[in-house]
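User: Please predict the structure of the protein below. I'd like the answer in structure-token form so I can feed it into my own downstream comparison script.

Assistant: Understood. Taking the following sequence of 130 residues as input:
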Amino acid sequence: MIWNFIAATALVTLMPGPSRLLIVGASMRRGWRAGAAVTLGVVLADAVLLLAVLGGLGTLASAAPVALSCLKWLGAAYLLYLGVAQWRSAGLAPASDGTGGFRRGLATTLLNPKIIVFLALYFPQFIRPD
């Protein structure tokens, strides 16, 4: 059972999405340290979302579609902001990353409602009631 979980999680981790694109973009523009900072933010956000889903957020999201819709729009607005910021800084020299990459990775993943829905559907398959 654990090997199925590890294999499925590895495949899901490799799927493209906003968080993965942010990691690749930061790594290419600012080097591996910036990519590692973004990755740390993404991993922390994934852990927070997993704990939230295990605590009942998935059930709450399915019971309150308006709240999930608000989260979707908030996430879309944040991704639009990131895109415009990236576009506006295209000709500028990359700035020192500091904690900005970590915060971007954290916010991008936390505001992605697909992760909440995915985790709510994914993890119960690997939990044995006994």
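That's the full token string. The chain has seven helices and no strands.
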